[in-house]
Design brief:
This protein is α+β, with helices and mostly antiparallel strands. The protein has a domain of about 80 residues: Alpha-Beta Plaits. The longest helix has 16 residues.
């Protein structure tokens, strides 16, 4: 086991592939959602939760009825652009809205959240940054 300590990650991966894996380290592990949400598929789209899938069905029906238009899923918004700090490149910050659509009066960015995820500090910060940077887009939390 000590020989693994001197290997690079690439060398270790190569070893596991070529020599077999007596520790079952290379087996694919299905990652469980930390909030126990189960992925749900509607048509050809897969959503992170049943609640999000249900909201998509509702919004699709509203779009077909003409109440909303331009429905997009997983629309990305840049909150902080990439920048350089003292010679080091720093990756920007983005937020991905679950849904984005026009409701007849204004554009809406919507996020489907559970009560638990609504309290996460990183979500609260991204929500506030979105509101600051995109004041003309209505932010809607669907709980």
């Amino acid at each position: 086991m000590v020989e693994f300590l001197n290997m690079t990650a690439a060398e270790f991966r190569s070893y596991i592939k070529s020599e077999g894996n007596r520790f079952n380290l290379a087996e694919k592990v299905t990652k469980k959602n930390k909030f126990n949400a189960k992925k749900k598929t509607v048509g050809d789209r897969t959503f992170d939760s049943g609640k999000e899938a249900k909201r998509y069905v509702e919004l699709s029906a509203l779009e077909q009825a003409g109440a909303i238009r331009g429905l997009e899923c997983q629309k990305r918004f840049e909150l902080v652009e990439n920048f350089e700090y003292r010679g080091v490149n720093v990756r920007g910050v983005a937020w991905v809205a679950d849904f984005y659509y026009f409701n007849g009066r204004e554009w809406v960015a919507e996020d489907v959240k559970s009560p638990i995820t609504r309290k996460k500090p990183e979500y609260i910060i991204k929500k506030k940054l979105f509101m600051l940077k995109y004041p003309d887009i209505l932010f809607n939390e669907f709980c």
